[in-house]
Amino acid sequence: MDYFLAIVVSGLLSGAIYALMGIALVVIYRSSGVLNLSLGEWAMLGARLTGSSAQLFGLPLMGAIATALVALSLLAVAFNRLVIRHLIARPVVSVV
Fold first, then answer.
1. How far apart are CA 45 and CA 73, in angstroms?
2. What is the 8-class DSSP label of residue 84?
3. Which residue of 22, 31, 75, 84 shows the fewest CB atoms closer than 10 Å?
4. Where are the domains of the chain?
5. Rounded CA gap, 9 and 1, in Å?
6. How confident is the model at residue 96 (pLDDT cuts 50, 70, 90)?
7. Averaged pLDDT of the chain
């Protein structure tokens, strides 16, 4: 019974992650009109930063998540200013 419960909880958590990624894709597409296929890469980078900061700095889980959130926010702002703003006036082919 414990094994079955562990599988159900694991499946629900995996499904929740897929649902959040799907919602994020829809929100980005509706707001910008561009299908951003790099969303998975950003999510993976966040997971790697969380794991790395927990292991390297010995942070608890919530501290590692907060550190990764701040680092990804700064990286996203830099990416927006250096890359995305230059693509706004370009043809659609260069955006994809």
1. 12
2. I
3. 31
4. 1-33, 37-96
5. 12
6. low
7. 90
